[in-house]
Amino acid sequence: MKPNVFMQRTRLTGLASAVALATMLAAAPALAQQQAPMLDELVTSGALPPLEERLPANPLVITPVESVGTYGGTWHSALRGGLDNAWIARTVAYDGLVRYDREWKTIIPNLAESWEVSDDARTYTFHLREGLKWNNGTPFTSADIEFAVNLLHEPTYSGGGGFVKNPANPVSIEVVDDTTFKFIFENPNGVIMDELASVNGLTIVSLSKDYCGQFYPGTNPNAAADAKAAGFETWELYMQDRCSWATETIRWANPDLPFMNAWMIEEPLTGDATRTTFVRNPYYWKVDTEGNQLPYIDRLEMRVSDSLEEITLMALNGEIDFQDRHISTVANQPLFFDGQEAGDYRMGTEVQSSSNTMVIQFNLNHVDPKRRELFQNKDFRIGISHALDRMEIIDVVFTGQGEPYQVAPRPESPYYNETYAKQYTEFDPEAAAQHLEAAGLVKGGDGFYTFADGSPLTITIDTIASLRPEWPDMLELIQLQLEAAGIKMEINNIDRTLYYDKRPLGDYDAQVWGGDGGLDVVQEPRYYMAFSPESVWAFRWQAWFNGTTPDIAEEPAPWAKEQMDLLTSLRGEGNPDKRADLMKQILTIGQENFPVIGVSLPGDTYYIAKNNVRNIPDTLFQAYLFPTPAPYDPFQWYFAAE
What we know:
Blueprint: E1 2-3, H1 15-26, H2 40-45, H3 51-54, E2 60-62, E3 74-80, H4 86-91, E4 98-100, E5 107-109, E6 112-117, E7 123-128, H5 142-153, E8 171-177, E9 180-185, H6 192-197, H7 209-212, H8 223-229, H9 235-243, E10 263-267, E11 275-280, E12 286-288, E13 299-305, H10 308-316, E14 322-323, H11 333-338, H12 340-343, E15 345-352, E16 359-362, H13 369-376, H14 378-387, H15 390-397, E17 403-404, H16 418-422, H17 429-438, E18 442-443, E19 449-450, E20 458-463, H18 470-485, E21 488-493, H19 496-505, E22 510-513, H20 539-546, H21 558-571, H22 576-593, E23 597-598, E24 600-601, E25 605-610, E26 613-614, E27 619-622, E28 638-639
Parallel strand pairs: 2-12, 3-13, 15-27, 20-21, 20-22
Antiparallel strand pairs: 1-6, 4-5, 6-7, 7-9, 8-9, 10-11, 11-13, 14-25, 15-25, 16-22, 16-23, 17-24, 18-19, 26-28
């Protein structure tokens, strides 16, 4: 086994910061231990053990961004309706075995204080901190990880799974002792550390054996009978109701579900909730450099509202302490800029990881043979791309911010390729016509294109207007631009559930989404290849690749299969330089085959923070797999005295 305690991201080395952090942790003194005043009475009464019995033997020492903070206060923010739990995951839940540092360069210890990787990248040995406890006081040990793996291996349990359920590289677990366990993969796995450091690594540490085991036949022989008695047909349904980390409507609805996070559920997020609240976890296992147990902030209160206008008004009125999600739109930016003094808040910068403001995904697996043939024709996609006047969209919708851009790695990425990013972005009606006709379309006397057999062509693009307020404006301009080029287009605004339900059916022309994968290129290649169910442009090809829905899977085109073979090799490669080379080959094939169409490169966005909230960096990365603001350690944020 070779030590690999601080593995690097493939795109950045981060060696110096890793060595510095390792030195700091190794030299951390025996610190004085202080707790939040709100816990004093509980300890005095005996309802809560003293702090030294609640912390692990080696608590994780966190260096504050600016200064050691003070205890107290409630962090106010807002959710967009009862299913908007992504904000909770971004603020509360980011505590896996490992995590990314604040610069998104290095993978650093978290629940696991160290790890080793075998030379063949098949065996990963993790060492947990000794004395970790769930928020209910029960020990967190290797047995909890083993329980989670066993449960996630259950084919009938639909509560998530991630790498555990990957049929291409099965994993088993070997428990060595209470604090040591091994993940053993059938094949080499060179990307598992990034998986564990992202939001995808949370499920494995979120299923307490002590609590969730009572619903599982593997640990409770009476689980099926107990489920019936509780009104559930099967133990799986009972388990999902109580312990389904991956089920959006349930994840934050059970206050009894134990967590390892800085704050625990107080008022659950139910279907009719108008707010949800979280309160500090008295067993949280991190301290600051002076030995004060974190978090500093006592409570989190999130207003649940379906109205973006209400949430925006709350921020303008100074009723939100920190937020970016939903409110940091281009349209709101001048309002927030002008309102800083009155609302007693400041605006910080967020550098987006996204490659594009909107991705147009034509359905290459359409169930209609004529549309499938058309959408799979590269000339058709090139023609549509040349018909777009991207600068008009940028000027009208984004007030001139951004630049024409395809769905390609961002300029800040080591995978940046200007040719890929800029190909077919010129507004060129003549080139558009040439490519559309090369794809077999015929322009009629009314100026609109038909199929070669003369049958009419109208393209319908699905969108979710409530998700991104700029998308309807962009699509209305695109509709006019395509009509000028001879393509009839309809905008179909639907709800999110139907949006997802249409994908496996295959009966849709195109859908739009945001441009994931601009910086997290290796972790999120959904637009560069048929990678995941979010590769909507080739949903049935990705099903073939992932083996998830064999009833609809279709064998991909040769170029797409070549990408899949390269990704399989990448996943099994332990050498980061070789992984990077394999990713470049995947991108080269993506560039050549041009599967999706982008509009523009997003400019920087912003966050809103009250002036008395401290320890927030001025500039943040904004990403999904790097779930902002969680990697910036909100548990070390605090309210400064007025």
